[in-house]
Amino acid sequence: MSESRHKSRDNILDAAQRVAGKVGAGNLTLDKVACECGMSKGGLLYNFPNKDALLAAMLDRLLEQHQQILATEERMLGDEPNRCLKAILRSMACHQMADPEVYLSLLAAASQQPELLAPVREALAAHYERLTNESSDPQLAVLLWLAAEGLMFHDILNIAPYSKSEKNKLFQRLFEISGEVS
């Protein structure tokens, strides 16, 4: 893909993310996205032939961003034991990758089109496999991962009964416990 086409796709995805954050993915239209990014609908259709392709690309980009953050966290951990688990916990605790409204809107869209979540299922399966293969206590590693996922979903859904400060303390405790897993 040419540099200009890649930049154009990124601009469209940025605009789609803003629109989804404002109106939800269910109300996202190609016209609204084209207007938001200052592009003709034809230019948008050149990059994304339909709304489903646009939503899938948005989700793919969120996953790619998460994978990049995770890889950076793993490199920073060097040869520490349980690098995968610790990197997952740190990436969830320390990085806000997108407006929670974007995640909510993508979840809503996926409830109507479950096939959109196929890449998410694959990424989670890869995390699960690594966690269970790299730990002497795979069940504890998976439980820590799932606890972190729960904290993130509380945050995304804005239903957490605890403060942001308490959430940070909970993540810190998960990270401390992850040091006990060999």
From TrEMBL:
Per its UniProt record, what SUPFAM superfamilies does this chain match? Answer: Homeodomain-like (SSF46689), Tetracyclin repressor-like, C-terminal domain (SSF48498)
InterPro entries (alphabetical) = Homeodomain-like_sf, HTH-type_TetR-like_transc_reg, HTH_TetR, Tet_transcr_reg_TetR-rel_C_sf, TetR_CgmR_C
Cite a single GO MF annotation: DNA-binding transcription factor activity
What keywords are annotated for this sequence in UniProt? DNA-binding, Transcription, Transcription regulation
Residue numbers of the DNA-binding region are 29-48
| HTH tetR-type domain: residues covered | 6-66
Which superkingdom is the protein from?
A: Bacteria
By what name is this protein known?
TetR family transcriptional regulator
Which organism is this entry from? Pseudohongiella spirulinae
From which lineage does this chain's organism come? Answer: Bacteria, Pseudomonadati, Pseudomonadota, Gammaproteobacteria, Pseudomonadales
